[in-house]
Amino acid sequence: MPVVDASTLSRLTGVKLRARAVVEGVLSGLHKSPHQGQSVEFAEHKEYAPGDELRHLDWKAFGKFDRYYVKRFEHETNLRAVMVVDASGSMAYGSGPLNKLDVARTLAGALSYLLVRQQDATGLTVFSGGQLTDVPPRANASHLNVVLDALDDTGAHGTTDLAQAADHLAEKLPRRALICVFSDFLDDRADALRRLLALKARRHDVAVFHIVDPLELTFPFEDPTLFLSMEDDRRLEVNPREIRESYLEEFGRFLAETKQTCTAADVDYERVRTDDPLDSVLLRFLARRQGR
Amino acid sequence: MTFAHPLLLWGCLGALIPLLVHLFDRRRPRPHPFGAIAFVLKSQKRTASRLRLRRLLLYTLRTLILLAVPIALARPELSQKGAVTAGLGPMATVIVLDDSLSMRWRDTRGLSGQTLFEHAKTEAKAAARELMPEEPATALVCGAAPAPPAPLSFDRARMLQLLDDAQPTWEAADSSRCLELAARALEDSPLPGKRIVLVSDFTATSLRTEAPLPTVAGLKGERIRPEVVLRDAAAGLDALPNHALLDVKVEPAPQVDPKAFQFTFTARNFSDEAMKDVELQLKVDGRVVSKGFFDLPPHGTGQKALTHRFEGGPVAVVEGVLAPDALTEDDTRTVVLPVPRELTALVVNGAPSPQKFRDEAFFVEAALQAGGSPVRAVVRDADAAFREDFSSYDVIFLLNVEAPRGDVAQRLKAFVESGHGLFISMGDRVEPDAWNQAMGAVLPRRLKLYKTAVEPGSSDVGARSARLSQVMAEHPVLLPFTGRAREGLMSARFSRYMLLEPGAEGGQVLGTLDDGAPALVAMRRGRGQVLLFTSTVDRDWSDFSIRTSFLPLMQRIAAWLSGALEEREELKVTVGDTATLQTQLPLSEVDLLGPEGLELKLRKQPDGALSAGPLPAPGAWLAKSEGQVLPALSFAVSVDAAESDLTRLKPDELKAFFGDDAVKGGSSSTESKAPIWTWLIVAAVLAFFLEGLLLKR
Which among A18, A142, B67, B379 has the fewest CB atoms less than 10 Å away? Predict the structure, then answer.
């Protein structure tokens, strides 16, 4: 299986190239497409009016009632997906070639690439520091460039506000959609993740990509260090050796709680290290989706 | 507190280093933007109080390390307030090491099972090493007869070698003399400080507390008490339990066998707990022949008698061995016993008769063949007897025998003078003149004439017969005749007896008749003995032969004449004593072989006696001359029973003797075992270890 590692991706400039590289890795790893055929769900009949799609004319109804009716479907397309990318300041942290935001953007781009390639609509929502940027879901190939360009333009700044993003998505997505969240979930608010997961109750399909850096996992610092917050002006001078044990305990508990909350809400949870090969991450994700 | 090297205390300023580092070492931390700072903040908040405590501990430990090292190098020493010579700087020191028997007590608390003496050596060497380099010192190994110690010097190696070479003795130490010698040695030093370090087990017998503590002449001639440091070799032990064999009494046991002896052992329990079934082994020449068991109450004694019949001689080494305890050296008592050989008596029957009860030798033969007899009797008539080789006999009984011919008389004289015994009894065949002529040189007194108190066979024999009126009860032959036995002896009636000429040469009259005539006269002739009985040993002239006292008296006479009763006085020799031995043997050179290959020469004294000593070890000491063991000069040496009492002196008693101010490390205190600087180093190492642990966490 080809593996696209972080250092290789880091040599590619822009989300477009990185996403494509990842997708190619994914495609060569797939044995069959996870989405074959159309997913059309009949909803109602509507009397024909000029402008309606002639291919949706129900000829059996015409034979029965001698009137023209067109079929209306639940989904206009195969699938609607929204990539929700956290672009808060903390996402700029990275100890390797790629920071967390790079990973989030690449994964979101690659996933969009795959969706559009199979005629599914894909959109984008970027949230950071109270600002939200939306690209509505579309299925055409030219729309992919819009999404990828928007991802390319995304920079990390501001605080993380998952709750605001959740409220915004609930409002903007009236119909069922696949919502892929790419974030480090470093939101101080207690119920932020739960509010995001509440989208599941609105019949949306939610998948979470929890992005962490290896240094956050191991906290290998030795010398006295002045830690600076990446989202606000907090700072702390500390001897890392003295608090390592306690930090690892706290951070481990945070990771476990996040995963447990997602699992309890029947949400796909994927922990992604910034040094993980991203095609493997996507393949793992797709394989799990296929198994659902 | 005093310091050997006070300048090194400047090193204590090093303890400020952690504080200075804390104050001035403000290294700029490396800034690091970090996404998960919330968790860093939370961890820092959670561990803040613990970290503060840890930092405080680290600071304390580092300060302690930096303080302990220079203080330890300065060699601090605690000096008690009021110590007589304390605070005078360097002190001249004498280390007195007790090497008495009680120091052989084995301490079984640890795996090593060292003796108190080994502990004491360690203590003494530690004391030597703790001395300041500028302190002159010497060591004195304190025995029973201590010699003055070597002059004070700074040669520690020689002193340590002396202490290393010291061995425990078998004697009690004369601690008063040792302290006196130590005090004299200290006077040679110009230093004002004087110190005696006494290393001992501090048992009740180790110190003569009635003697005053010696003083030392000060610089101005005043008498000052030296500082006394007590180092307890038995530190941590309140009691030293011990049992010991204190004594053994040896007696012949003729009721069992002529060659049997009874050994009565006395054992004592010196501990506070009762001892049950303590085994006692009787060993003869190293072989266990009998066993007994003691039940000993706390601080009580017990006796146990064991009997053994000896087979061969000439000497047997008999040991009583108690079940071993921590002090095994006093669990054995040794006896060197001359084993009686089988004696033969030639009974010369001067008036044989086919009728046994009329036979002159009938009663004597019966007595000497009865149980318990020390001799084997061979009865011959005079003709046959005088043809015999006398040298194969130990004693000859001449019973109513005609005066022997000249050559026989000469042979009899030579027989006696060579160390054998001769018994002569009277009768109608004994002609006084002929006897005086033939045997005058042998007889204790010359015979005079017969006296008839009453005609034998007459009706008033009972009333007119002579009786014994006085006997020499202290003579070995008559020793057993006390009480009822004496009555049996005194009730014998003599109708006729031989009167004797006055004894110009002075024979020893063992018994006289009521008219003052001698009945039993003894005399030494050369190396032998002659005993003259002035009546008959059959029923012709007396009824003595049918009296109950006849049989034991004849056996006793046979034993005495053959030398079996001539036991030398039991020699009580203790380790360290000089043994004096009386002998008439013409000996050129005698070696004395002791236990464990020890050897001494017997020295001849002006009075002819032989002496050996001081005897260094307990056990059997066998005298040998020309390869032959000499029973008369062999003896056993025992340990001093006083050393078996290991009752410990109480701290109060020690203070009462040495004074409160002079005692630095009493028997109850064990903290003086390690000097302060050692503990400081231990504390520093511990602090270093703890610091490492804290840093690792």
Answer: A142
Residues of B in contact with A90 (CB under 8 A): 35-36
Which residues of chain A have a CB within 8 Å of the CB of B36? 90, 184, 186, 216, 251
CA–CA dist B116, B369 (Å, integer): 58
Number of Cβ within a 10 Å radius of residue B569: 6
| Closest Cβ–Cβ partner in A229, A236, A243 for B47 | A243
Residue B681 included in any domain: no
Closest alpha carbon within chain A to B40: A247
Alpha-carbon Rg for chain A in angstroms: 22
Q: Are residues B609 and B668 in the same domain?
A: no
Q: Chain B: nearest CA to A73, how far in angstroms?
A: 45
CB contact under 8 A, A247 and B40: yes
Q: What is the pLDDT of residues A88-98, one digit of tens each?
A: 999 999 998 89
**Domain shared by B111 and B184, yes or no:** yes
Does a structural domain hold residue B548?
A: yes
Q: Are B490 and B471 in contact (CB under 8 A)?
A: yes
> Does one domain contain both B516 and B417?
yes
**Chain A CB within 8 Å of residue B49 CB:** no
Which chain B residues have a beta carbon less than 8 Å from that of A91? 35
pLDDT digits (tens, 9 = 90+) for B581-617: 776 566 667 788 888 888 888 778 777 778 887 888 8
Token pair listed for A77:
């397309």
**Is B645 part of any domain?**
no
Write out the two tokens for A15.
């989300």
Residues B178 and B126 in one domain: yes
Angle in degrees, 0-180, between the axes of helices A100-117 and A278-291, rounded to the nearest 10? 50
Contact B467/B491 with Cβ under 8 angstroms?
yes
User: From the CB of residue A194, how many other CB atoms can be counted at a distance below 10 Å?
Assistant: 15
The C-alpha of B17 sits at a distance from chain A's nearest C-alpha, in angstroms, of 20
Same domain assignment for residues B419 and B509: yes
Are residues B318 and B279 part of one domain? yes
Residues in chain B within 8 Å Cβ distance of A188: 38
Tell me whether B597 touches chain A (CB under 8 Å): no
User: How do residues B388-419 score in pLDDT, each as one tens digit?
Assistant: 899 889 999 999 999 998 899 999 999 998 88
Q: Between vectors from CA A247 to CA A245 and to CA A253, what angle results, nearest 5°?
A: 105
Q: Are B30 and A227 a contacting pair at CB < 8 A?
A: no
Note down the domain range covering B32. Answer: 2-75
CB B197 within 8 A of CB B93: yes
Residues ≥6 apart with Cβ < 8 Å to B219: B190, B192
Q: What is the ipTM score, two decimals?
A: 0.80
Backbone torsions φ then ψ of B56, nearest 5 degrees? -65, -45
Whether B143 maps to a domain, the answer reads yes
Number of domains in chain B: 5
For residue B55, the distance in angstroms to the closest alpha carbon of chain A comes to 10
Using the Cα atoms of residue B283, residue B289, residue B290 and residue B291 in order, give the sign of their dihedral. positive
Identify which of B349, B329, B209 has the alpha carbon closest to the alpha carbon of residue B657: B209
Same domain, B116 and B47: no
Cβ neighbours around B484 below 10 Å, total: 10
Task: For chain A, say whether B41 makes contact (Cβ under 8 Å).
Answer: yes
Q: Write the pLDDT tens digit of every residue in B556-565.
A: 898 888 876 6
Q: What is the CATH number of the domain that holds B151?
A: 3.40.50.410
Q: How far is CA B165 from CA B29, B97, B138, B141, in A?
A: 65, 12, 14, 10
Cα–chain-centroid distance for residue A118? 17
Task: Pick from B41, B50, B51, B56 the residue to mutate for testing the A interface (most A CBs within 10 Å).
Answer: B41
Q: Is B25 exposed, middle or buried (0-12, 13-18, 19+ CB in 10 A)?
A: exposed
